[in-house]
Each structure stands twice: as structure tokens, then as C-alpha cells.
Amino acid sequence: MTESSSTSAHKPTAGQWERALSSEWLARGQEAYIRRQRYAINFATATVRFFKRMVTTPDAANDVVSQLRSALERCDELTFNETPDAFAYLLWHQIDRYHRVSQTLDRLFQLGILPLAKPGRPLRVLEVGSGPAPASYAAIDYYAVLADWAKSRSEVFQISSNTEAHTLDRGRAWQQIVHGLSEELLNIEDRQSLRERGPFRTRFFNITYPEFENFSPGQLHINARERMKREILDEDELWQFQLDTDYQDLNQYAATRVSPSAYDLIIVANFVTSSSMMDSFKAELENLANSLVPGGILLTLSGRNQKYKDLWKDYAALPHVNRLEHVVDEVMQAHQDPEVHGRVTRSTVSLLTHLEVLAEQGLDKAELPQDINEAMRLPLTDPSSIASVQAVTYPTFQVHGFVRRDRAISTRDRKRIAGRRGADADA
Ligand SMILES: C[S@@+](CC[C@H](N)C(=O)[O-])C[C@H]1O[C@@H](n2cnc3c(N)ncnc32)[C@H](O)[C@@H]1O
Known about the structure:
By secondary structure, this protein is an alpha/beta fold.
């Protein structure tokens, strides 16, 4: 048992526990760090292998090359209904985003606001505008290692290692990608778990929801619950539910078997990219703010220029969002850890090299960024390629976090009431 858990007379809150242990949990080179790196290597390996297995002809490679520039600079213009768009996106962003989300979860842990679920129930994640679901893959790995770590140290907080991820995206190409990538991961993990017994990780094989317009977890939950109740009542098992006296039980029974109305963690990454999008999805974005369990957090990851500053300011001011506590407003540097930086860059270079070999006109059409071009010039096995890999730069990104503290009134109203109380006391 650790000092933090054994010496305190009272059980700490989850937040106190996280803050007290964060330097141990995040220490590089320690057991948890090594396991996290191994999972991240598996993820990068699966992504690269899957890509190479799917893009095998000059035509397929040319099609992906022709989308590389848009996928890097103007992905708003891509529908992701066709596979070349999706593979171009996967090449630049999948491994990069996985790490950005992991890094963000680390920050929540440091701040003592990472949501935790007790063993016995899954921790529920919703990824909105998920694309190939990097945040869901990252969260599943993160909680599996954290739960195992807490267990191996007999920590005062035991954590569910079961993360149930729901994804939402309308791009039709993502279904196939998520399915294939999860299978690739299972292949790698199966072989690995023959050698060592790691914690069980839930895998998902499709995109859960197809469209954000009119999306409301609460409404979906109610509709599904009512449908299930009707089904139960139509079936012979009616005797199981003493309708008059136990109606509540039937309600509860159905509620636990359908999609949840609330999540522990909602991640909206690189999805809301314009004020017109914010305006047209105001109601849906407010629904997200209403779809957190107590202690749950809604995270947004985005660029950090003035456009995004204005967007998130507007978002924070929406009435239902304003009821949440705005706990994170930070700019983070992607891939500060050299090990992560090297992995992200080398995976990208490996995929670009694969395309270069296959595509008839090479990568000329893609107009690659200068630093990536440099990193591609030397084979990755050449020792002097290390410097060019290290020279590749990644941008900073903006993170906002909104926590549900189970408060019935908004921050604005709370301040107003506190102000009025102060004035009354002074009078
Ligand atoms: C730039 S990608 C972000 C992917 C991922 N979240 C990330 O951070 O890498 C934006 C995604 O939002 C999806 N999208 C845009 N409008 C949507 C809508 N109305 N409903 C569902 N998905 C939508 C697109 O299909 C695209 O996959």
C-alpha cells in the first residue's frame, strides 16, 4: 500500500488520490509507463500494418496521395465517405491524436479530475466526430493500465478496467477502418497475451452513432428503454415483473440494458471548427453538457487560434454548459515525450514511404511539409535519421474541460447569489 493510502486516517476523495499519486503514475521508466508505451506501440503497429494491408496497389496509393494535402490542412472539406480520404486522415492523425488524448488524460489525473469508475461497472466514453476513434482507443488503453496499476499496488481506489466506448461520426468510410483496425489490434494482443497476461481490454468494431444532428443521449436512452419495456411486457416472462408493485424494477431493469443517458467522459476533438457549426449544433452541444454522470467531464481538443478562442468562449456561455465547472482551459504541446515524438514521426514516415514506393508519381502531388520531407530522405534504420526525425515539429493544441459537479444552478447564478448574500451581510 502506498503512503498516500496507508497513512491517511480517512479515505481520500478520488481527486485527492489522483493528485497525491500523479508523479508516481506519470513517472517515466516506471512499470506503468512501460506498459503504456507498449500499448501505444501496439496501437501504432496495428495502424501501420492495417494501412499497409489495405493500400496495396498503385491506384489505391495514388488516390490516398491525392488526399494527403486536404487531410492535413482542410479536413473540413472531406466527407470521409470514401476510403482514400479516410486513409489519408489515418496516416497523419491517428497515432498523433491517440497520444494527444493520452497526454490530456494525464493532465486530468494531475489536476485530480480524471473520472474513474468502480470495478463492476464500465467507464463510459463518448467520442463525438470520432473519425477513426483515436480518443476511444487511447481511453481504453489508459484505463486498462491505470486499473491494473492500482490493483497491483492494492491502492485505496480500485478502478474499473472496462471502458465502454461509443463513437459518433457520419463518414461512411470509418466503419470499415474501425473494424479492421480493432481486428489488427486483437491479432497483436492475442499473440502478446500468450506470452504475458495483461488486463482485458474491450474492443469496439463499429461506429455507434451516425449523425450529430438531433443527437441526444438522454432521448436515445428513453426511447430504447421504453422499447425494451414494451418487448418485455409482450413476452411470456411477464410473470417476472409484478407490474403494479414492481413497476420501478422493470424501469430499472430496462434502463440498465440500453444505451446510457450519461457518460463519464465525452470527447469532442477537432470536430467543431466554425462558428456556423457551433450555431447549427447549439442544441446538440448543450445536450452533451447534460449527458455527464456526476464527476463526468466533457473535453474539447482543438486548434488554438482566435477563431477557436471565440468558439469555446461561446460554448462555455451556453446555459447548460455554464452549469458545469470549467476546470481546464490550457494550451498543451503535443508529443513532448521524445519516445512518443519519435514514434509518431516514424510511423508517419513509414506510411508515406509505403505510398511513395507504390504510387506512380511518388509523393510530388502531396507537397509534404518540409520537416517531414527531410525526415523521409534517410532510411529510418540510418543512425543519422534520428536528428531529422527529432526535427519534425508538432503544434500546440487547446484543451477545455467541463466537469459536472452535480450542481443544480449555473456558475453565473451561483456567483450572482453569492454576491447578493455578500451584499445582504454587509447591509
Ligand atoms: C476532423 S475529423 C476529427 C476526427 C477525430 N475526432 C480527431 O480528432 O482526429 C471531424 C469528423 O467529424 C465528422 N462530422 C462532421 N460533421 C458531422 C455530423 N454532422 N455528424 C457526425 N459526424 C460529423 C466528420 O465525418 C469527421 O470524421
